[in-house]
Amino acid sequence: MGIHVASVPAGHVYVRHLSPAGGGDGVERLPDPRPGTDIPDAQWWPPPMLESTWVREHSGDFDLMHIHFGFDAKSPDQLRELVAALRVEGKPLVLTVHDLRNPHHPEPGLHDQQLSVLALAADALITLTPGAASEIQRRWGRQAHVLPHPHVVEEPTLSRPRPQHDGFVVGVHAKSLRASMDPLPVVEAIAEVLPTLPGGRLRVDAHTDVMTPGFTNHAPALATGLRRLEAQGRIELSVHDYFSDAELWDYLQGLDASVLPYRFGTHSGWLEACHDLGTTVIAPDCGFYAEQRPCLTYAADPASERSASLQRAVQDAYHRRPHWRADPAQRMRERDQLAEAHRVIYADVLTRSAACTS
Question: Which of 24, 71, 101, 123 could form a disulfide linkage to 92, CB 3.0–4.6 angstroms apart?
Answer without folding.
Answer: 123
